[in-house]
Amino acid sequence: MSDPFFQPVSGMTLPRFAGVPTFMRLPEVGPDHPRFSDVQIGIVGLPWDGGTSNRPGARHGPRQLRDASTMIRAQHPVFGIRPFELARVADLGDVGPNPVDLHDTLERIEGVYAKLRTAGVRPLTAGGDHLCTLPVLRGLAKGAPLGLIHFDSHTDLFPAYFGGRALTHGNPFRVAVEEGLLEPARCIQIGIRGTMYDSADREFAAEHGIRIVTIEELFDRGIPDVMAEARERVGDAPVYCSYDIDFIDPAFAPGTGTPEVGGPNSFQALQVVREMRGLNVVGADLVEVSPPFDQAGNTAWLGVSVMFELLCVMAEAL
User: Fold this and answer.
1) What is the 3-class SS of 222-235, one letter each residue?
2) In the sheet that 41-46 helps form, which strands lie side by side, from edge to edge?
3) How high is the pLDDT of residue 1?
4) Is 178 in contact with 231 (CB distance < 8 Å)?
5) With contact defined as beta carbons under 8 Å apart, do 140 and 123 qualify?
């Protein structure tokens, strides 16, 4: 029987436009809360975009995603999954960043996620730019590298910009592979497209055995076939899912800093996650929602809809 404490507030009890917004209207449970030890899946905000190379604004993503998520209801429309009855889920709040110190912020995030790992809490994260994923992986995967299913229009396997050693949202997965946080043979990146500076990221992927599925291949083969390959590649071992909102065509998700045309529509954005059912997803994120470019709020609504799909997959995996 589900725990009533961890049930979201129903719109039949309190209108969705009323009350203090939390992720999916769940209880807010900080590390000092008496029920923290009972949490199985924690939704965390990372309001930071210090790794952004183009248009900033993703630091405001978690707040807008929280607000949009009040429209999420309790049951999946296709599979009938009720994730809040399968798992004890809570809003764990935000990790407070240092807006003027990149490395301090990364250490703060890593520390929080290391504690979540120790506590047995599986995190579902709302970013923030894609560099946020690197400290999350540092906290979750040290000594136990993970597989990766990565939905994006960019590989984020690029060398440091300007010939230096800087960390950006363009290289978190390159660094994660170099640090042994990911098993390259169990990594797949899906939806890659757009103009390129050069082929350095593709060469890195080929050298390390990371599978790249371009948007052309995804559309030619179809989502079920590509996702069957993804499932086979990651297997039954623990896997992390990272979902950049710019995987989706900007006609459907314009509110992001580095959009690329020619991507999936909003239904396909959900479909790729639905094909992950049954995988051992131990953590996931939705990143790069940038409210300054999301005038109607459609990007945030699509983003939290993807997060609900990810939550259903994670809840079934417990």
Assistant:
1) CHHHHHHHHHHHHC
2) 89-94, 41-46, 122-127, 281-287, 239-244, 146-151, 182-192, 211-214
3) 57
4) no
5) yes
Contact in structure between 237 and 41 (CB atoms under 8 Å):
no
Domains and CATH numbers, the chain: 4-317 (3.40.800.10)
The pLDDT of residue 142 is: 84
pLDDT digits (tens, 9 = 90+) for 204-219: 999 999 999 999 999 9
Query: Could you tell me which residues are beta bridge partners of residue 91?
Result: 28, 43
pLDDT per residue as tens digits for the range 62-71: 999 999 999 9
What pLDDT, in 10s, does the model give residues 139-156?
Answer: 999 889 999 999 999 999
Please give the model's pTM, rounded to 2 decimal places: 0.97
d(CA 167, CA 190): 22
Q: Let me know if 103 is exposed, middle or buried by CB neighbors in 10 A (0-12, 13-18, 19+).
A: exposed
Alpha-carbon Rg for the chain, nearest whole angstrom, is: 18
Residue 282 CA from chain centroid, whole number: 12
Torsion of CA 152, 177, 46, 39, to 10 degrees: 110
Strand 89-94 and strand 122-127: the pairing is: unpaired
Q: Which H/E stretch holds residue 111?
A: helix 102-119
Q: Which two tokens stand for residue 284?
A: 């996931």
Return d(Cα 199, Cα 207) in angstroms, integer. 12
Q: Which residues contact 154 (CB under 8 A, 6 or more apart)?
A: 170, 192, 194, 244, 246, 258, 260
Res. 124: pLDDT tops 90: yes
Q: Is the pLDDT of residue 4 over 80?
A: yes
Tokens representing residue 225 in the block? 């076939």
State the SS3 of 148-185.
EEEECCCCCCCCCHHHCCCCCCCCHHHHHHHCCCEEEE
